[in-house]
Specification:
3 helices; 5-stranded antiparallel sheet; 5 strands; alpha+beta; about 150 residues; globular
């Protein structure tokens, strides 16, 4: 009996993790550094993947700063990129008890309540995970084949 071996190219997963102050400035910096890191990994500024990731990071970081803020505690951004396959965006904060509820359309004239609705529309999938020892992580994943990457 002969076994046929198939050759597979090694898969490189690139990872970026950074903590930011739980302030609006920290949220802006998280978005900028995410775009810079993606560009370094070969995902150019202005591409569909870059623009989609920028919007998701902006929304999740803003939520971490607005709803997940604990004074004196940072929030964390983690990117995991597999070229041609997928991008995972994790934003973690230290507030365990304030978890996002079901995503519903905001009132037409409201100036808030659309962040996770946008994440749901842009991401291939998203979820809320417990973060040990404390807090939560909101994870959004992009299937790059659906974005033409």
């Amino acid at each position: 009996m002969t076994t046929q071996q198939t050759h597979r190219d090694p898969v490189t997963v690139r990872v970026f993790t950074q903590r930011f102050s739980s302030t609006p400035r920290g949220a802006r910096l998280a978005r900028r550094l995410a775009l810079h890191q993606l560009d370094r990994w070969g995902v150019p500024h202005g591409s569909a993947v870059s623009d989609t990731a920028a919007q998701i990071v902006a929304e999740l970081a803003a939520n971490a700063v607005t709803h997940g803020r604990v004074p004196g505690r940072d929030f964390e951004l983690a990117l995991s990129y597999r070229q041609g396959e997928g991008l995972r965006i994790d934003v973690s904060d230290t507030r365990t008890e304030r978890r996002p509820g079901p995503v519903r359309p905001a009132a037409p004239l409201s100036d808030r309540g659309r962040g996770l609705l946008l994440v749901e529309a842009l991401a291939t999938r998203w979820e809320i995970l417990d973060r040990l020892p404390v807090g939560k992580t909101v994870r959004a994943e992009l299937d790059l084949s659906s974005l033409g990457a």
